[in-house]
Amino acid sequence: MTSTPTPTPGLVRFNTLPDSEFLALLHEVCASSAWGRKLLARRPYATEDALLAAADTAMGELTDTDLAEAMAGHPPIGRPEPGDAVSSREQRGMAGASEALRAEMLELNLAYQERFGHVFLICATGATGEQLLDALRERLTHTPEQERAIARTELGKINRIRLARLVTKDLVTKDLMAEGLVTEDLVAGDLVARDFAAEGDHS
After folding, report:
1. Is the pLDDT of residue 69 over 50?
2. Residues 15 and 64 in one domain
3. Is residue 158 part of a domain?
4. Domain encompassing residue 202
5. How many CB atoms lie within 10 A of CB 60?
6. Which helix (H) or strand (E) is 131 found in, with range?
7. With pLDDT > 70 as the criterion, what percentage of the chain qualifies?
């Protein structure tokens, strides 16, 4: 007899958030309102895998207009918005980049946006500045149709990483703090330690 999977505490919290809070949370993952509504309609999720599969399906269903809205929520590589901890963490590979690399990245980012009409979008987690620049150089040779398809795939990768982090860590952390089981200082120290460990895994 096959047993029914038991959702993790973070996933239970994710499934039971009020609709407005759920959509606001998903907007932090992906700026497409249509993507968020599609995931809302498919609640509840029995497992994290089911959630990620639904996210992939929703990404595949986005119109070009929806996709443009999603891409507009991402800053250019090498230029995360001040205070945007998520993008800064994802673009950590640019932190130690040389001035020459940063200057070329800026120049090619502008050329990309002029050619395709949207930001150069890539899943930057774990990638070095050199790898990101090489990818940008290559993708400048593509057609607009190729780039829309690639951008959709890259956006899906980013969303999966952000959702997994949200469900397995961030939501559980908020619950533990609400229950007084951990302090904000302890959580902050733990998150910093985990982020540095993750950075080492990607090197």
Report:
1. yes
2. yes
3. yes
4. 8-73+153-203
5. 10
6. helix 129-139
7. 70
pTM for the whole structure? 0.75
The number of residues in the chain equals 203
Identity (one letter) of the amino acid at 114? E
Q: Give yes or no for a cis peptide into 44 (omega within 30° of 0).
A: yes
pLDDT at 10: 84
Q: What mean pLDDT is predicted for residues 107-125?
A: 93
- pLDDT tens for 80-113 read 555 555 555 555 657 677 889 989 999 999 999 9
**Assigned token pair, 8:** 């993790």
Domain endpoint, select from 99, 119, 141: 141
46/101 same-domain check: no
Amino acid at 191: L
CA-angle at 146, arms to 134 and 142, nearest 5°:
45
**Residue appearing with tokens 């089911």:** 50
